[in-house]
Amino acid sequence: MSQPLTIPARRGKAHRVAKGETVRVINTHGEQVIDTWAFNAEDLTEFMSMEHSRAHMLKIIPVVGDILRTNRRRPILTLVEDTSGGIHDTIIAACDRHRYAFLGVEGHHDNCEDNLHAAMREIGLEAPETPSPLNLFMNIPVHPDRSVSFEAPVSTPGSFVRLKAEMDLVIAFSACPQDILPINGVGHLPTEAHFVVEP
Amino acid sequence: MSQPLTIPARRGKAHRVAKGETVRVINTHGEQVIDTWAFNAEDLTEFMSMEHSRAHMLKIIPVVGDILRTNRRRPILTLVEDTSGGIHDTIIAACDRHRYAFLGVEGHHDNCEDNLHAAMREIGLEAPETPSPLNLFMNIPVHPDRSVSFEAPVSTPGSFVRLKAEMDLVIAFSACPQDILPINGVGHLPTEAHFVVEP
Question: Whole domain around residue B107: which residue ranges?
Answer without folding.
Answer: 31-171
